[in-house]
Structures are given as structure tokens and as C-alpha cells.
Amino acid sequence: MNNIFTVARKEFLDTLRDRRTLMMMLLVPLVLFPALFYVSITIQSNQEKKAREKKLKIALIDNGQAGEFRSMLNERDDLTIIDGIATAETDSLIRSDSLDLAIVFADDFKQMQDSLETGTISLIHQTDDNDRIEKRGVELIKSYEAQLTEQRLNTLEITSSNIDPIDIDNRNVASDREVIGKIIGGFLPYIFILFTFLGCMYPAIDLFAGEKERGTIETILSVPIPRTQILVGKLIVVATTGLFSAITALLSLSLSLQFMPIPEVLVQAVGGVLQVGNVLLILGMMIPLSIFFAGIMTALSTFAKSYKEAQSTIAPLNILVIVPAAIGLMPGIELNFGTALIPILNVALATKEIVAGTAPIGPLLIVMVSLVLLAGVAVAASARWFASEQNVLRS
Amino acid sequence: MIKVDQLVKSYKLNKKQRAELGTLEKEVRAVDDVSFECEPGRIFSLLGPNGAGKTTTLRMIATILNPTSGSVTVNGFRTDEDPAAVRANIGFLTGSTGLYERLTPNEVIRYFAKLYNLDGADFRQRKERLFDLLDINEFANKRIGQLSTGMKQKVSIARTMIHDPQVVVFDEPTSGLDVITAENIIRLIRDCKNEGKTVIFSSHIMSEVDLLCDDLAIIHKGKLCYQGTMEQFRADFVDRTLTDAFIHVVQSVPSI
Predict the structure, then answer these.
(1) Which helix (H) or strand (E) holds A101?
(2) What share of chain B in percent tops pLDDT 70?
């Protein structure tokens, strides 16, 4: 045991002095990742705010049909009415951003209203990724429609309840925590699975293939302690680095959320996620997960002839990790006895459920047990590869 | 004391390796039935051209590789029965044995001492002696990556000797070193002999062999093709230079 700690302590020291590992372990999760997140959220919310507050340029082509609608628009200060534009010009003017919307009244609009028929108003817009402007146009017309409806009801001498026989009382029994939990709960494992992977990667390469490349492997193999103890000492460092990098990413993200322009309810939901029980359950998955990654990467790194070879073998595995984690983000895929057995995906789904507070005990236990088993298999594989003289001395 | 008895190391060849080596054999013998003994207080030199099987033999002595058959006994411990005891008795240094570049000499020596189960006063005493002897003190707290090749070599020597091994194994210890740095190693080998340790080293530099060696064995293509004392070798080839004699012995082995 003492030997394992001696090896682990030395490898920690060595790893903490490696710039590449430090970057991956600290700088990326602590600074770069929240910064990127912050920038993208800020840009997105600024864009939306801009679209919401923008003074709209609306071409109103009414042929004298608009009447009250025109005076309604005149009262608002978040738009400008532009007259004198021909219907044929609207499309090109909107495409060139000279106009935001065109509202065109049908020639018979008034007549249709007078005869209590349906009149047509065309709303012309250019909507690709942001539908905020279209929505504002629709809202304007809807509020005009409400006015017209009221007038008609008065004319017909009926009340609104006469034509509205059903009132839907829509009640969602899912709590805020469940709804928001499923959203951020899908995102959370994506982050920690990815960062556990990245955090394990460089030490795994450095402590095995790197040791071969620098010619220190023979030196360490000539000491009178069993090879498995050397391996376990190194594995502890690789797994801890992965775990540490994932925890750093999660902590820095949850801290930086406080400073981001996101709804208060989301911030509260994140706070709700960070309850002791949840954190322990998630850690309970992250620990075997990082040992599993460490075992696999160590086996591959032991086999590789050089740092570069190890890097080109291990880095592409990223895809194998990201894809199941991303599938876990999709709605409709839930944790059950089947999905609990699919590595990585099970972690993603279980986290989602834990965060939402709806984790089913049976499948959750299966996830935990299968993770521990997988970690054991990965460590056994790495021990086997590390014990093989052909692998260790392969050059 | 090292006793090597009918030592064999063979490797299975896959298709690609067979094509590369131009052979139809399914197996290659890197070391083929090699036996010799190294006595305490004497320097044993293992000679042979590149690829002869020197490194493989020394690695089997140091328990880094397992023999296919035959046995190695180091200071009374068999490598297959008690590898940890063998390793505890051996100091192993190769031309390519690297050091941890991000650590300092102090940290590296402390690390290895711990792994050799060397503690407290014993460790301090031995470290002090080696650091004084090799002039390591002035750079003992600098990262090894920042040291010159000569300085690194000195730290490697201290690392090899920190547990006071009774048997020292050197695999081409001076390869790639300049003469001044190589001189450190030559002095170390001599000191080991004077202290009554068993020394085995491999080389293909005949001047080094001439300078140091008491007994020698020449291997070629995995087989032992000469074994005797240095005096006997000189007497056997009295009309040749040492290099000539070495080439003669190697070339007289029938090609396989």
C-alpha cells in the first residue's frame, strides 16, 4: 500500500508540473469553458433582446381598409409605419432589411367585416432563425382581432362565454424542478463525462506512453515492487485528474451561472441540483466512470510506442463518449432496465433523473453496479497489458 | 554473483515480422542457450554487435524480461522465483535509462530510495555520500530537464547506487555520451569492483573493455561464441588487436 502511495505521490507531482495536463485539468474547465459558455449565452440573449426592443419598420398597405388598426399602430412607439409602398416591392425591401414587416389588408377587408365575414390580412416577413419579429407582427394583428371580435359580440348582443363553451384548466403536475431538471440534467452529464474523459487523457498518455518515450519505463520496472502496484499508483493519478477536471468544470459553471443573463428560476434550479444527496449520487457515478476511463486509456497508452501514437489512439475515443452522452440529451429517452446497461448513456440518463428527482431505484442501482463492474474490467485489462513485457517495452 | 544457465529468450513472429526479417521461421531466438557466471569483485563484459542479444540478456538478469527457458540466479535469488529480491540486489543502468525531467535530483533520489525501502538515516547518509562524490549538490534542486547530459548521467548513477546494490548491471552505459561524461561511468564501474560488487556491462567499444574488464563473453545472433578471462582472450589472439579479435570471433559464427 505504501508503495502505491509513493508511486501516486510522485506521479501527482510530475503531472502537476506538466503544462499540457494542467491546461486540460484547470485552465479549460475553470476559465475557458465558462467563458465560452458566458459569451454564447450573452450573445444569444442580446440578440433576442435586440429583436424584442427593435423599432420595427412596418409597411402598412391598407387601401383605406385599416381604419382603427392604423390608429392603434400610431399610438405605439416601438414601430414606425411606412406608407406608399407597393405590394410588389415588399418582398425585396424586406430581404434587403429596409423593412421588417409588411401588413397588407385585402381590398374587401372592410366589406367582409361589415358583413360579419372573415377578412384577410397578409403578414410578410423574413424569418429564419429568429421568429421574434414575426411574433410581434402576429401579436399586433391579434390584438386588433380582439377589438374586432368584441365589436362583433356587441353587435350580435352576445357575451364571449356564449361562444367559448370550454375553459381548459391546464395543470402540469411536474414540478419546476422536474421540468428544468430534465433540461439541465441532460446537459450536466454531457459536461462531466466529457471533462472526465479529457482530464484522464493527458496523464494517461504521459504516465505510460510518455514514460516509454522518455526512457524511464525500464528504470521504474527495475525497482523491487510488483508491477501491479506501479500500475495502481499511476491509475489513481489518472482517474483523480479526470474526476478533478470534471468537478472543476461543474463548479466553475455553476458559479459563473450567477453572473449570466439567465432567468432566476434556472439559477434556483441549479441550486436545487447541488443538494448533498444529488451530489453524492452523481459522484457515485463519476468515480467509477473516471476509473473506467483511466483503465481503458492506460491499457491503450501502455501498448502505444510513443506519446504521439497514444494520442492518436485515445483522442478519437472522444466520439464514442460524446455520442451516447448527446443521445442522453434527447427528450423521450429514459432510464429503464435496458438503457441502464448501456455505458455512458446510462450515466447521462441517470444524472438527468437524479437532477429531476425522479430516479427509479432499480435502474439506478444497475447503473452503479454496471459502472463499478466496467471500471473493474478496464483496470483488469490495463493490469494485463501492463504486465505484458511485449507491450511495456514495445518500441 | 550472477549465474546464467542455458538461458533462452524466443519471440513469436507474426506474418509481417516474418516478411521483414525474410524468414519462414515462426519463432526467433534473441538469446539462445547462453550460460556464464559473473564473480563478485570482477568486471564481466558482455560483447556483441548490435542486435546480438546483449540487452535482452541483461534485461532478463534485471527481471524486466522473463526467460523462455533456462535460469538466472542473482546473489542466490532466482529471477523466476523471487524477482523482487533480485531487483533489490541489482542496480540497473542503461545508456537510455531516462530520468523524470519534471522532478529535481533530490526528488528523484528520494522516490527511488522509498521504492527500495530505504529509510531515514540510511537514506540520508547514502544520498549525502553519493551527492558529494558526484558533485550533485549544486544542482540538486534544479529540474532534471534543465540539466546537461553530464549532470543527468550523474543523477542516473546516484539513482542506480542509492540502495547499495551488490550486483550492478550496465547496458551500454556510455553510449551517446561524450568522453568526459563517459569517464564518470568508467570511474563508477571501477569503484564498484573495488567495493567487491559483481559488475556486468555490455558494450561494443573495445577500448572500454580493454580498460575495465576481467572476464568477457561474446555473443552473436543470440549464441555465446566466446567466453573466458580477459587475459586468456589477449593470449588467444596475441597477433591481433582487440577489435580485430572481436570481429574475428563474431565472423567465425556460421550464419543461421
Answers:
(1) strand A101-105
(2) 98
**Is the CB of residue B85 less than 8 Å away from at least one CB of chain A?**
yes
Which three three-digit cell numbers place residue A214? Answer: 522518455
Are A298 and A235 contacting, i.e. CB atoms less than 8 angstroms apart? yes
Interchain contact B13–A (C-beta under 8 A) = no
Residue B96 has pLDDT above 70, yes or no: no
Q: What are the cell numbers at B124?
A: 540520508
Q: Which residues contact B104 (CB under 8 A, 6 or more apart)?
A: B140, B141, B142, B143, B144
What type of residue sits at position B234?
R
CA angle B113, B117, B121 (to 5 degrees): 70
Q: What does pTM read for this prediction?
A: 0.82
The three cell numbers of residue B62 are 534485471
Q: How many other CB atoms are there within 10 angstroms of residue B13's CB atom?
A: 17
Rounded-to-integer distance, Cα B169 and Cα A53, Å: 80
The pLDDT score that the predictor gives to residue B255 is 56
User: Who among B88, B102, B111 is closest to A18 (CB)?
Assistant: B102
Interval A49-83: pLDDT, tens: 887 788 889 999 988 888 788 888 888 888 899 88
Higher per-residue pLDDT: B178 or A5: A5
Question: What does each C-alpha distance from A99 to A57, A66, A83 come to in angstroms?
Answer: 5, 19, 11
Separation in Å, CA A360 to CA A108, A178, A322, B63 = 61, 14, 24, 52
What ipTM was predicted for this assembly?
Answer: 0.89
Q: Which of residues 113-152 of B touch A (CB under 8 A)?
A: 114-117, 143
Residues of chain B contacting residue A216, judged by C-beta atoms under 8 Å apart: 97-100
